[in-house]
Specification:
The chain is an alpha+beta fold. Strands 2-13-10-3-9 form a five-stranded mixed β-sheet. A five-stranded antiparallel β-sheet has the order 16-15-14-17-18. Helix 18 (581-591) crosses helix 19. The longest helix has 23 residues, at 34-56. The structure holds a DNA duplex. Belongs to the NAD-dependent DNA ligase family. LigA subfamily. It comes from Agaricicola taiwanensis.
Length: 724
DNA sequence: ACCCCTCGAGTTCT
DNA sequence: CTCGAGGGGT
């Protein structure tokens, strides 16, 4: 969706007010009038929900448990005095009796990870090679791998306590899903009670909820006959059926379940993936019959091809084959990278392709000024979804593929999600089609758009950027969206749509304007609540959401500024090193001269090199950026980044350096292990290092450690210390 | 001087 | 999710 602005939009200078909220001592509840109570209630709801989200989803609570309890208590008091405020919108309804309109969120005890993908045979052999080298297994050592079809459904997590189904949830974002227990209980393949002598006290069973193909067709026939919604494919039908608020409806839908894995478990009935899954079958689950234990790459690939041949004849949809290292001790040693395990991979079937006509190319302007071409396509169904847009990435990509407007092009959904344009079908090219000429000026503000030259490589950057900066309305809007977005300032109710209209109407032009919105609205004749689509409640909620972010963790604030090359992680690094914005700004200004300590300090931070440091320096060198930050700080207080709240291991929060040859595990394993225990692994010894683990052959790092008086231990001592 | 991995930035659709 | 760039190690 492109932005459509009147091209010559004047840059709006908005009055900036000093604004202070009256955070004076809270009134005793009985003295409040209904309006005050409603206001405070709304404010508390937003604040509590924000904390909940940070706690459950981001794993980064920003207040103490005690303070959080205070907020909940205050909310309870107000609701007791003004029961009308107890609504579905209140987080208190989660613990209260009122049934929520949505499903309750459930946090998975062990996150539900996603799998890395393999598309070619080579990716599979690479995977096995990586596993062997990570584990230091010789090429001829046996390495059993379990292969099973990847069912195209939705994964679910079933928590059994004492053998009884306690909670069933969807995968959600992997960390937190929705509680759909009553719905899952209607599925015949899901036992409510597990039978067996080796059933653990507590175990989370994981598997796939799906709908068989013929059941899906029958359901659609029935739905059509009753004039109800028909589903695009079995997966959508399964998802729609599972997420019914009325479990009675789910019961009438022919859902099935294959068990294939587990999350938290108080104990396990076996020491290999295949044996544990076999135990699931004994306990009463259905497991997939095409599961096979293989011992070589050839065998895995043969099984893949066998399944691929049988694919059409199978009673359910599948989109690939999953390979899992069978031995659980090896799985544990392999651990995980980012959010997928290193011991499993999904070998996908080739993506479905379709052809359609390229009817146009839009150019979007990003917050950094980047011009991104987006293909406008004649709508076409690919993999069960109608695709109308597809990114063309950049200028070079269009030239490389030589796609022209009017061309018939091949489209596929890569990794099953993002549509990709593979290229034109030349035989179908209209005779008058001309090569696409990428605009050299910004389509929104008309400024020159240039490809910067990378100072390191001397090569041109792939992206062309609008040089309009401040005067480009598209950039201004995108920056504001970024500022308010969930991982940045996280201002609820100030979404993309709102920002676009507020900007267009001159209400918000710069970040600081967000925080003066309420005060200006109070004086304005044209009130927000009179705008179309707005009411008194939504305005109150918005102001409450804004107020809730008048204090934010420094890392969020820095990320929100949108400094080039400073994303979430780098913002955290900066926040950890400089305890407030002013300190960072002073350091950046000082570093501009490259004399004195400031520049060296900046580049010394692990993860920050000259390019990133330069971006920070340049940001604060701009007068308008400094004044934007200054104005923001009139309204926003930053707080220090809370230290990593991690496992109570002895090395949690410590910075560890591994050096020399490690004999029991590889370097990668050591790093993964330390990180699992909440430690930060650094590459070189500095004053920030807490612990050095040295193997034989350690050299300069060991010397440096003793100079700095840092504790050095051996690999064996490391294992003792972390209790492994 | 390269190679690998992580991070940033941009994107689609339900 | 994917691509390219940046950082850091070899």
């Amino acid at each position: 969706m492109g932005l459509h602005f009147a091209c010559q939009m004047s840059f709006l200078a908005l009055p900036s007010f000093l604004f202070e909220i009256d955070m004076a001592s809270l009134k005793a509840v009985p003295e409040m009038d209904a309006q005050e109570a409603a206001d405070e209630h709304a404010r508390l709801v937003v604040e509590i929900e924000g904390h909940d989200r940070r706690y459950y989803q981001d794993d980064a609570p920003s207040i103490s448990d005690g303070d959080y309890d205070e907020l909940r208590k205050r909310l309870g008091e107000i609701e007791e005095r003004f029961p009308a405020l107890k609504g579905v919108a209140s987080p208190s309804s989660k613990v209260g009796a009122a049934p929520s309109e949505r499903f309750t969120k459930v946090r998975h005890a062990v996150p539900m990870l996603s799998l890395a993908n393999a598309f070619a045979d080579e990716d599979v052999t690479d995977f096995l090679g990586r596993v062997r080298s990570f584990l230091r297994l010789p090429a001829d050592a046996p390495l059993p791998v379990l292969a099973e079809p990847k069912i195209d459904g939705l994964s679910a997590n079933l928590l059994y306590r004492g053998g009884k189904l306690a909670v069933g949830a969807t995968r959600g974002d992997g960390t937190e899903g929705e509680d759909v227990t009553p719905n899952l209980k209607t599925i015949a393949d899901i036992p409510e009670q597990l039978n067996g002598t080796d059933v653990p006290d507590t175990i989370e069973i994981r598997g796939e909820v799906y709908m068989a193909k013929d059941d899906f067709l029958a359901l659609n026939t029935r739905q059509a006959a009753e004039g109800k919604q028909i589903f695009a494919n079995p997966r959508n039908a399964a998802a729609g059926s599972l997420r019914q608020l009325d479990a009675g409806i789910t019961a009438k839908r022919p859902l099935r379940f294959f068990a294939y894995g587990w999350g938290e478990a108080s104990s396990l009935p076996a020491e290999s993936q295949s044996d544990v899954v076999a135990a699931f079958a004994r306990w009463g689950f259905v497991t997939n019959p095409l599961t096979r234990l293989c011992t070589s790459a050839e065998e895995l690939l043969a099984h893949y091809r066998a399944i691929e041949l049988e694919r059409g004849a199978l009673p359910y949809d599948i989109d690939g084959v999953v390979y899992k290292i069978d031995a659980l001790d090896l799985q544990r040693r392999l651990g995980q990278v980012a959010r997928s395990p290193r011991w499993a991979i999904a070998h996908k079937f080739p993506a479905e392709k379709a052809t359609t006509v390229l009817i146009g190319i839009d150019v979007q302007v990003g917050r950094t000024g980047s011009l991104t071409p987006v293909a406008k396509l004649e709508p076409v169904t690919v993999g069960g979804v109608v695709v109308q847009n597809a990114t063309l990435h950049n200028e070079d990509e269009i030239a490389r593929r030589d796609v022209r407007i009017g061309d018939t092009v091949t489209v596929q959904r890569a990794g099953d999600v993002i549509p990709q344009i593979l290229g034109p079908i030349l035989e179908k090219r209209p005779s008058d089609a001309v090569p696409y000429v990428f605009p050299k000026t910004c389509p929104v503000c008309g400024s020159h758009a240039v490809r910067e030259v990378n100072p390191r490589t001397g090569r041109e950057d792939v992206v062309r950027r609008c040089t309009g900066g401040l005067i480009c309305p598209a950039q201004a809007v995108e920056r504001l969206k970024h500022f308010a977005s969930r991982n940045a300032m996280d201002i609820d109710g100030l979404g993309d749509k709102q920002i676009e209209t507020f900007y267009r109407d001159g209400l918000i032009a710069r970040p600081a304007d967000i925080f003066t919105l309420e005060a200006r609205d109070a004086r304005s004749l044209k009130k927000l609540k009179d705008r179309e689509g707005w009411g008194a409640t939504s305005v109150r909620n918005l102001f409450a959401a804004i107020d809730a972010r008048r204090t934010v963790p420094l890392n969020r604030f820095l990320f929100a500024l949108g400094i080039r090359h400073v994303g979430e992680i780098t913002a955290k690094l900066l926040a950890r090193h400089y305890k407030d914005v002013v300190t960072l700004q002073e350091a950046a200004v000082e570093a501009a001269s490259r004399e004195g300590r400031a520049w060296n300090d900046l580049v010394a931070i692990d993860g920050i090199g000259p390019i990133v440091a330069d971006a920070v320096v340049e940001f604060f060198a701009e007068e308008h950026n400094r004044s934007a930050v200054e104005d923001l700080l009139e309204h926003v207080t930053t707080e220090e980044l809370a230290g990593p709240v991690s496992a109570d291991s002895t090395v949690a929060g410590k910075t560890v350096v591994f050096t020399g040859t490690l004999e029991r595990i590889t370097r990668d394993e050591a790093k993964a292990m330390a990180e699992r225990l909440g430690a930060k692994v650094a590459g070189s010894v500095s004053s920030k290092t807490d612990l050095v683990v040295a193997g034989p052959g350690a050299g300069s790092k060991l010397k440096k450690a003793s100079e700095l008086n840092i504790e050095v231990i051996s690999e064996d001592e490391w294992f003792t210390r972390v209790g492994a």
